[in-house]
Amino acid sequence: MESFNQLACLLILFYMLPSCKCANIDQSEDDRAFRTEYTRQREELLNQSNYDPNVRPSRSTNVTIKLNLHSLNELDIGSQTLSTTIYFHITWYDGRLTWVPSITETECIAFTIHEVWTPNLSVRNNKYEKGLLGIYGDGPIPLRVCNNGTVVWIFRVTPITTCQAVITHYPYDTQRCLLEIGEWTHPLNEVDLVPLEFLTDSYTTDEEWNLIPPVSVCAKEAKGISGLNFRRIKYYLEFKRYPTWYIPLLIVPVGVLSILLLGVSLLPCSSDKKLDYLLTVMLSFTVYFTFVSSRVPSVSSSSCIFSIFLAVVMVLGGGVILFTLVGICRKTPASLINTIRDECPKRKRSNTESTPLEPVNHGYNAMREESDHNEM
Q1: Domain check: are 167 and 268 in the same one?
Q2: CATH number of the domain residue 145 falls in
Q3: Which residues share a beta bridge with 220?
Q4: 139 conformational bin, left if phi > 0, alpha if psi -120 to 50, beta if neither
Q5: What is the per-residue pLDDT for 350?
Q6: 328 and 273 Cβ atoms separated by less than 8 Å
Q7: Which neighbouring-strand residues pair with 122?
Q8: Does 31 fall in a domain?
Q9: What is the pLDDT of residue 83?
Q10: Tell me, what's the pLDDT at 23?
């Protein structure tokens, strides 16, 4: 029975080998036909009507822009910069790049930006890098052209843009940052930018900042140096800081020290320990104030309420110490001397202090008499 099963398996494999070989041949012929048709169609599109990538598709071209925020890399309040990772989805219509799909069903063809016309887009408020979008050191980002003339260009950008920070309510602050996109070369009557929605579906949650949707979008006209009007698209992103990490580190210790500083009023005014208590609390507050000042971002355009509170507490503490010193100095000199005398320990007299001192003869008188006798 076992030998019969082995023989049946061999017969099945024997009959399947020709069909597999035919399938491979058919697949290779289909791939060859696809490559041939794809190359022919691509060359035909670029060669027809002497296609020039430096000439825009029409007298007035509309370019639609859709953004998708992927992640927040860094929001630096000190340098007032915002670093994000954004996917650009740009489309426009080019009537020169249309064809009827053949038997290979080639509906979309990939091109480079050097082969077809592309808009010269740039991030206007990029702080460090300057240049056009979609062009990088490792080469340009390719695009797809569909048979109906629709050009789709998708690429990723990591801009570092300027962000006017406001730290008035730190650490409960909310920052509103601007991302401005514009056309670099063509004015509004030649290339118009049409903004679509700003997506946050693939946004990765940040540990310090929370994105507040939706992102507001507005398209405005801006006048260039030559007097021409250009289209500018402005995206406003709002991020709210998570204050959970700052409550046990900043809020609670400062509140405890402030309550301890107010507790000096419970001590009696004539107590000499009042000044020691004040100096100890103010020393602790000064050390912690140095730590807090290193954590609070320094922005000259706005003042932080938390920093103002710390400064007010420092001034009040210094005033209380000054009034305490004035109260101590108003004591009468006699009472002050008596207080110091009572606090100083009394010195005990030794036994030798009651015995009168006698001159000690070290033999100098005898030597002097002998010298006088020799002279005689």
Answers
A1: no
A2: 2.70.170.10
A3: 232
A4: left
A5: 53
A6: no
A7: 182
A8: no
A9: 93
A10: 42
User: Is 182 in the same domain as 274?
Assistant: no
Within 13 Å, how many C-alpha atoms sit on residue 371's CB side? 6
Cα–Cα nearest to 109, from 31, 39, 27? 39
Higher-confidence residue of 152 and 252: namely: 152
Q: pLDDT per residue over 91-125, tens digit each?
A: 999 998 888 877 557 788 889 888 899 998 989 88
Q: Tell me if residue 137 falls in helix, strand or coil.
A: coil
Is residue 375 situated within a structural domain?
no
Question: Are the beta carbons of 194 and 61 closer than 8 angstroms?
Answer: no
CB 234 within 8 A of CB 182: no
Q: Which of 96, 99, 94, 138 is nearest to 118 (CA)?
A: 94
Examine the domain organization and report whether 201 and 143 are in the same domain: yes
Q: Does any domain span residue 27?
A: no
Dig out the tokens for 139 from the structure: 């080469």
Instruction: Give the number of other Cβ atoms within 10 Å of residue 74's Cβ.
Output: 13
Final residue of a structural domain among 207, 223, 241: 241
Task: Give the number of domains in the chain.
Answer: 2
In a domain, 10, yes or no: no
Domain that holds residue 311: 247-338
Question: Which structure tokens are listed for 285?
Answer: 């507050």
Residues 6 or more apart in contact with residue 5 via CB below 8 angstroms: none
pTM of whole model > 0.90? no
Instruction: Calculate the alpha carbon distances from 1 to 4, 5, 6, 8, 10 in Å.
Output: 5, 6, 9, 11, 15
Which two three-digit tokens encode residue 354? Answer: 């009651």
Say if residue 217 is in the same domain as residue 271: no
Q: Return the structure tokens found at 272.
A: 């000499």
Cβ atoms within 10 A of the Cβ of 109, count?
A: 19
CA distance 276 to 325: 11
Residue 284: pLDDT band with limits 50, 70, 90: confident
**Do 270 and 213 belong together in one domain?**
no
**Do 232 and 268 fall within a single domain?**
no
Tokens (6 digits) for 212 = 């507040």
* SS3 (DSSP) at 101: coil
User: Residue type at 40?
Assistant: R
Question: Same domain for 113 and 185?
Answer: yes
Do 223 and 298 lie in one domain? The reply is: no
Whole-number Å distance between alpha carbons of 187 and 197: 23
Q: What are the phi and psi torsion angles at 175 (to 5°)?
A: -105, 135
